[in-house]
Amino acid sequence: MSSQTNFTFRFRRQPLKLLYTLYNLITIPFIKLPFFILRAIFIRPRPTWSLARAVYVDLYRQVIVFVGQTGIPPQLSPDKGAESARKRFGVGFSFVEPIPEEGIVGDVKEAAQLNGIKPERRWGYWYGPGVLEEGFKKPPPGKKMFYFMHGGGFVLGSAHPSDPLALETSIPIIKHCPGANVFAMEYRLAQASPYPLANSFPAGLTDVLSGYYYLVHTLGVDPNDIIVSGSSAGGSLAVGMVLYIIRQGLHRRSGSGLSLPLPRALWLESPAVDWGMSHVTPTSSMTLFQRSDIVGPFIQPTDYCVRAVLGNLPKEEAEKNVYISPASKDLADEEVKGLFKEFPDVALTYGGSEILRDVVRTLRDRLTRDLGKERVLDLEEPDCPHVFSTLLLHDRDKESAFGKVGKWYKDL
User: Fold this and answer.
1) How many angstroms separate the CA atoms of 293 and 237, rounded?
2) 0.85 exceeded by the pTM?
3) ∠ at Cα 109 (367, 113), nearest 5°?
4) By the 8 A CB rule, do 242 and 266 touch?
5) CA 263 to chain centre
6) pLDDT of 93-126, one tens digit each?
7) Distance between CA 250 and CA 209 in Å, rounded?
8) Which candidate, 183, 290, 271, 174, places its Cα nearest to that of 232?
9) Which of 99, 198, 275, 288 could covalently link to 213 via disulfide, CB atoms 3.0 to 4.6 Å apart?
């Protein structure tokens, strides 16, 4: 892995932020863009890519580097978020009360105590039909919905429709899955030095558990109508949530005690499920696909996301904690064998040119070993980057990928 140079936030304060912004406004259009165009004329990351697509991916990486040097935009407050979601985007809003503390148990409770994490009141946004109608409470009985977690390495992004990480994924879901609603959870974002340490593991996991508890117990949505879903780090949270429910036996409880039945299925888009970087080798997608993906500067070279997620936990947790890295190659075979045997059906959408391709394939293989090939749908889209649902110039790929998701949805 190359030296750790990105996501240092060295220009987060003024006047350095202004100077760095001016530097980028000059160098990107007048120096870097011409270089990207010239390079793409002769050498493109994928032979099937157009010149425009190759240049677009190069420019997108520059945006990620800029964020990593100047600072991460904060999530909107619930008041501002609710108002703008309704007025500007026609998107609904709901507060989510914290899951009862009795729902956080076992090794996750131990991690929560070490990192000072407790369940908190959060909120989420409703996308799809009927979300602004007076009295909207939940999707109609028998109509499947998506419970969605956005990506962003656990440290950035939002469920609010102003953020493409949620909006641009929800649009094709709604288009290809007739009648489906999407409830996108605004979970807490982790942070680390140079910022104060906050919201480390299991803050995000706790929040998505609260959201699932809200859907099942507060709204009364039938778990068999819920498809738990997530992109990138949100996919990791989706897998971690279902793993947690199974490992703690919350789906088997009846009578007294908190219970959380399993959802009908999982849909995962480019799930980031190896934060110990065990797949980094000279011949892996993590190394070879740096130019054909957008998130190279975000995932490596940097340790910011890992430090933020771990908090006070030892570094080894990034390699061997199944809630954080269930596809890690550092997990012993006896630890992963049978890990997913009680999982519901799973569909995996990911790009054939993304740096996490090999990571997702490892997850696919482990799921298939436990569940059988007929219950794991592998939707690798050739020559596509990470979470391509949020990208421009990928419309044909989106239609292909989400058309397959729509058919899977109808057949559930």
Assistant:
1) 22
2) yes
3) 135
4) yes
5) 18
6) 999 999 999 999 999 999 999 999 999 999 999 9
7) 11
8) 271
9) 99
